[in-house]
Fold each of these.
Amino acid sequence: MPSSVTIVTLIRKRLSSKGFSQIRHFSVISPKKSPENEQNPETEAPIHEDIFKSGQKLGSFRVGDSTFYTLIDNFAKTGDFISLEKVFSQMKRERRVFTENNFILVFKAYGKAKKPMKALDLFDKMWVEYQCRPTVRSFNSVINVVIQEGFLHKALDFYTSIIIQEKRVSPNVLTYNLILKVLCRLQLIDKAIETLREMPFKKCTPDVFTYCTLMDGLCKEDRINEAVCLLDEMQVEGCFPNAPTFNVLINGLCKKGDLSRASKVIDNMFLKGCVPNAVTYNTLIHGLCLKGKLDKAVSLLDKMVSDKCLPNDITYSTLINGLVKQGRANDAASMLISLEERGLKTNQYVYSTLISGLFKEGKPEKAMNLWKEMIKKECKPNIIVYGTLIDGLCKEMKPNEAKDIVLEMEKIGCKANAFIYSSLIKGFFKKGDTDKALEIWKEAKSQSYGQNDVCYSVVIHGLCNNGKVKQAMEIWEDLSLKGYKPDVIVYSSLIHGLCNNGGIEESLKLFNQMICEGSGCEPDVVTYNILFDSFFKKGFVSRAVDLLNCMIDRGCDPDLVTCNIFLKNLEEGINVGEFLEELVVRLHKRKRVVGSAKIVEVMVGKYFVPKESIWEIVVRDVCKPKRVRVGIDKCWNDLYV
């Protein structure tokens, strides 16, 4: 028997020989990444056919099988599928034994490379070409790849074919969890429940992930009660819920606005010894913000800290967004300081929300100071923050400053988008600088954003408001030639512009074109109000009433502006109260609850006391059964308190 020194000497001689160039690619470095390959084209083949000729047979395996596995592992990690195919071909020629682990490595590589169809194809070849019977491990690997790429129907077909029809593989809990995810995403909730009921017959016990997936699907379909029942069922079955399970229910209840039941779920959570985590608190805070209960949300933040659950950037972002929506941008700015004092990094979304809120509240100086602070803190602004700042400056009649921001933005490689261009165009039109607005629009067209629907609408609306109806009509014709279908804003702007210039008949032509079948655009209450006002100014009372009938027939409800226009212009001798009551009845017959309630609101505001029958109609429509008195009290409180 040769000594170890002799073996080492032989290996060194072998490595220094000419034959080494033919076998060196059995290192774990991909041949594509080897610089030697670029210099020597003769070494392109990753495997030499003589490398395992002397491989010793050991049962089902031979010496060298582990090396093949290492090669497959390496090529899979680097995504070298060409070399993988060559390895598989070499193994097939040498009649090597293919193990399932070989294929699982490749399935994962296909997933990483976003090639789900390749994974499905290889799964079919496992037994036919490589005599390797797939188990549930291979099936789960493949279906997971398919699901991750969003091929949900394909995943469902794959499951139906392999598991249900051909019964080639026995599913396990993971299989069911994956298919339940697919069914829930496809909104096939009833089918998902059936699948859950099948699991015990397949000797698979549902786990916490199974229930959590199905509960999430039920909540998203607004079937909260069934999700709560499922929580009770899983506990009866001995499957104890964890924090994510409770969070799913809490999230569903909060989105529905049922905060009282959400708090009961949290009580249940504590009883089961499950401690709420940051996601739990964030979900509750978000729910309180949606309901406008900001003070309770801030109190919950304090409780979160006292329970030793550290708030994160999502917690503060949610609160800041809620405060801004309620017009409390100053409080939100204080919250931002608190966030930074805790060492948490502020993201662009938070800055964008705050800057937008400060501009809306008429505090442009504070908004600009916040922008400067953001730059100082090296929080690199993105296109959203730039768009918010530019839009705010334009609304403050400072489009030139906004244009300077655009130039700064473009210097760092951030290109303006359609929203930014439309903000600039609106800003210059608002300032009365029509020429500059059109110049910006031409610039937008050169960047291909001029064809954007929003930009076209803004330009036409701006021209009409500035009395440039002729130019607006020219752009309108340009739109028609290019096959563009104008939206309701464009139509309303042109109708308004024509009415202001005395072209009421032309505006009616546009209106008729708008309501024609195939226009793809339906007039809204603003469009009708423009025409109502124009008709009354011309003394066309009967035409205004006819148009009102048309409006109701087409499913558009009158608003407060509509009612005020008619009340102001109706001829003397007409009983206004009866006119409005008739509108209520007509809307009620069409089950238009909101519209009829608005008319009654106008009547009370103008001191026209509705008849009892009218009150009964509105109250029955608006209020839920057994809560009529509460509804009446609320109505009176809203009107007079």
Note: DSSP finds 36 helices and two strands in the chain.
Amino acid sequence: MSKESGNASVVYTRHRPAIQRLLITCFVAYTLRTSYTTFRYPARPKQKKDGKERVQIDALFYSRLSRLLKILIPSWNSKEALLLAMHSSFLLLRTVISLYVATLDGRIVSSLVRAQPKQFLLNIAKWMAVAVPATYTNSMLSYVQSKLAIAYRTRLTREVMDLYLGKEGESSQAFYQLANLDDRTSDADQLITLDIQQFSTALAAIYGNTAKPVLDVILYNYQLSRNVGAEGLVLLTVLVQSSAALLRALTPSFGALAAQESQLSGTLRTTHSRILAWAEEIAFLSGETLEKLKLDRAYFSLLTHAAHSLQVRAAHAMLEEGVVKWLWGAVGMCICAIPVFFNLGAGGRGMGERTEGFVTNRRLLLSASDAFGRVLYSYKELSELAGYTARVSQLLDTLHSVRSGHFEKRLSATADTSLFEQRGTVEESDEIEFRDVPIVSPAGEVLVRKLTFHVKPGQHLLIVGPNGCGKSSTFRILGGLWPAYAGLVRKPPPGEFTYIPQRPYLSLGTLRDQVIYPHGKEEMDAKGVTDDDLLSILAHVDLEPIVAREGGWDAARDWSTSLSGGDKQRIAMARLFYHKPKYAILDECTSSVTLEVEKLMFDHVAELGITLLTVSHRPSLWKYHKMILQFDGQGNYIFTELDAEKRLALQEEKQTLEAKLEEVPKMRARLEELKAVARDRVGYNPQQPLELGL
């Protein structure tokens, strides 16, 4: 039996080099397969209990990432592709340097054991020499990775902003539709500013955190197998893979945690921004206590999730370090001791050679263990990247969806869902016409079933009706903010009409910028307009003194808070006179100015030949309009010519009758008092007329 064992040992020793090569080949193939298995997606995406898809590394994640990569790296000769190639070169160079340093480390210790001072100093000199390329490589890796993250963020931000606000030379109202017509994304500012940055940083880091560790595992273990034999490497691989399987099974869904944290951060930011946007109204209504409660709730939700996320990460980090650093380290030390105790391939090596081999092998083993640990850790980073990818992809999907006219809005109980399945026709024309167009709110409430009216140039239209009847909704359809779900809409191109609301928008910039918005100084100069021309425009709104009062045309401040409501409305009318469009939509835009200033402005509108579509309840404006569109608030309307004098006469008669009707209760009360007095008179007959003579 012992003879057979001895023969087997001889046969094994004779064929050991071939067996070693076979084992190493199998190890490389197994490492690549394991790396693929670590990052491949399951066949079916898991579902949450509420029916929503879990954020994880699955087919949907790779599909989303593939689409984003086409945006981030548009071609192989792009800046991003060159940075990626440079990054790969430095990663490979760092691995080569690490292998050399591991061997050099063993030589330094060996020279110490052998007491060879010259050899020791020479090795120290080599150590210092290799520090130059090593330091440069490590610094450049960090630099190139940061540059790559910035390049990714720039490319992706431009793509999103082109969808959000439109490319140069084209208009996009997706920013409005995203906030008002769609419920899928409530924190677009958070997604554009923070989530894109987090996604770009994670994507730039994930390449170095996955490609290099896989390469390191192969190269370090290959070199290690040559030093200690492939048998120990196989044993280590079995242990590592079994413990790695345990770690993967116990790894929580870091992608879902990252996505939820971004969402809660966006909710908190949106709550803060609402306070800034409605600060005056909240202050007047003394609503700070309620708003603080809402902020506390949003922050507490974020805080609770962050605390839970930290606990999960801490527990996983302890388990991971215990396995990767300590368990693998102990087994690795045993494997490094194999050449020392069993003298495999060592022949008659002395103490120095054995020490050098042990230190080198231990350094290689620690590097290989660290690399494999980074492969496992990169799965967690990939999970977080899946969360950021889901958020950014959702933004892109929603932007493309709203740009194509598809909206997902929470509908009211009385919504007519059949209207959302169709679209009307929109044509460009010199005239404005609605033909059988339904006025539908974003929540699906039908305000007017079929609206039909026609306005030609010069036919100023007055629109009246109670609140919520469809006046502003009509303008939103005309401006393209809301879709036309049926019928025909004929309107001029966007550059030929403008909209002036009751609360005008004042941008950041100079006083000049407020009048010429959305033009800049260069566009104003190209148009041939000077500051003196702007001053003459301000004369038509009785606002010339504002230039000297505010410090000149180049004065810059927060105009939305420094100007009164009347000044803002006059600035908006001056903006109308600067642009001189064919049509103007005026929505209660003179409610804060005097009748004298209002007459001055509308007289100048008539001189410029601008056709008006005005929402106002001021009788003083009736004489400036030829047509009237009157809603009754019940889904009905009247479109007819406007006889201002007749309507004013009817208005005066109506006011007179209303005043008399208001006196009726007082007269009835006085009559009852007189009847009570008369009943006290002797001989009073209630059937006879009451005589009040004394």
Note: Strands lie at 425-428, 432-440, 446-455, 461-464, 488-491, 497-500, 583-587, 611-615, 627-631, 637-641.
Amino acid sequence: MTQSDRHRHCLLLKGSPNEVLSDFRQLCEHFSSVLISAHDVGQYDELLASPSSLPPLKTCSFKHARQELGSSHDAILVDLSQGVSASAFAILAGTVRGNGVFAIALPNEDWLSMTDQDLARYLPWPYEPAQVTSAFKRYLLDQLQSEASPFRSVPDQVTALPALSPVNANAPLTKEQTDAQADLFAEQAKSYVLIAPRGRGKSTLLGDSIAKLIQAGKRVAVCAPNQEAIVSLKARFDQQMNQNHISLPFFAPDALISDSSYWDFLFVDEASMIPLPLLMTLNNKAEHALFSTTDYGYEGAGKGFGIRFCHHLASQKTPHKHALKTLTLNQPIRWGGNDPLENWINNCFFLAPPENNANTIKDVDKATIEYSKLTGEQWLTRSPLLADTFQLLVSAHYQTSPDNLRWVLDDPSVSTHVLHRAGQVQSVAIMTKEGNLPNTLSQEVMQGKRRPRGHLVPQSLLAHEGIENAGQFTYWRISRIATDPSLQNQGLASQLLAQINSAAQQNCDFLCSSFAATIDVVSFWLKNGYVPIRMGTAKDHASGGYSLMVVKPISDSARHLTSKWQATFIEQFTLNLLLQYSDLPTELILLMLGQCSPAQGKLPTLAQLSAKDLQDIALFVEHHRPFDSIRAVFLKATLSLALQGQLDSQKATHRLLLEAALGRNTEHSRQDAKLAGKKAMHQSFKAILSTLLI
């Protein structure tokens, strides 16, 4: 059998749910694993409740589609009549076996004119689905009807497709799988990442490897977001273990972290569905850890997983030969090679990596760069630019998913700003318009009674900071920004922000953004004139960092307010360094404090030094006043120096000064500063204070 013999059947069904279900049942009469998905599967549940012939069908709403990751189906029907979930669509397509069926149901009526119930998830207050004409539906329908589309209408006489061969859970591993397994069993790396598109046999490889390691006497643990995600893995494991009656050693992430055991091997499947902080902790639970994920597409976090988490793994210290080894699988196993459905999904949602382009621009000629601002249906006439833009976003941002395509095309508050040259996107920013909330709604948000869709910045300022008038202003929030990796550090993103700044004049009060605070990202926004006004108190689920909110005032009233908001932020931030941010990196604290110019030169209360404080510092520096007796004053002095930009985050002794002031463990920083013991550390403090303060 050739690879092309195992391509999936792609079908379009039209009619009412009853008509569609009848045709679909006939098509799948000989199939065993059949799924129906829709925005609301209630109509199908009612139809399926009545006695009927085989095959048995199960249903799954779009919002539960992620639970099907790791599953395999003979046939799936996706009913788009009520609405479209781009991510669910892509996820489900990846679970259909070779020679199986992926069918789409559409109504007989004019689908484009029908209200899309799934659209509500993408719209900010006060928009409702009935008010918005969906450009994304137009785009999707064009893709379904294009010459490149694999989808064909079902003939009037529906004929049942032949039954699929049973899945052979004990099929021999392919050469790719065997090579990857050999790399793993060589145990030369602390951590392994198995990256591949869907359908490449990752789960089979994991199940086979786990069984062989246990048979070899290794202590092995398996982790995944849920047990539904490892159905294929477990099937291969059970087959390999045969009559040994050994259960798969599965743990939920939280349970594994709380378990005191240390393993020889830890396997984490569907790793990109698990928050990065948990993954970092899991990596320390075993001598060798393997993390399996999809590089492009269906989860929406896979590429960013590769960017951020792999960088963390590669930089870890380990006695093994390698800190990280990456294992790859390219040849599809679940379906045939060059599968038309896979190709169409990747092209439609821009999930596949762009092909290597010999003409890729490697330098920046600012005189030839074009700037474009596009909204909604304008993208429909700029297909090549849309593809380039989204492939850049997918490769650069850890949270880009197929749903973001619908958001950009259908949210009336969204505009996309692009720098491009010779048809190639160099830098892109997605901006959302927020604010202008009615006073009554603002009050209810501030009181915690309402939480309208969207409007992240004004809602946060109202609900978390109690800024009573925050809702009345207009905000342009930069939600995503990315630059071609080959052109980074050449000022393109800053140039794009300057273009947005020009467009914002007379059109908004504030430019703003909110992002996971890391040193490089914070530095970028500070360099471009944005001011921190709020930091979240809980770490982001996906990024593992604290969220930082920054603004750049545009109107005169905004400039006055920004000074007030910044002063409040500094006051609270200096206190919260003791109360809530014990794990915030020292370099990041110094960077933020050094850029927070106090309004009118007034330092926050915690950083104000009295004459008595200065006397106490002098007694410590110049005489024999014990360090422990001036701890409170030492904190005030350190914060004062930091806020006035006199501490350098690149100097080990300055980092050590801040960590001691905040009561943190100073052992690592003492070693970096090449200081042996407390006495030497205190002497370095005296030298710094003598130079900068006294």
Note: The chain has a mean pLDDT of 90.
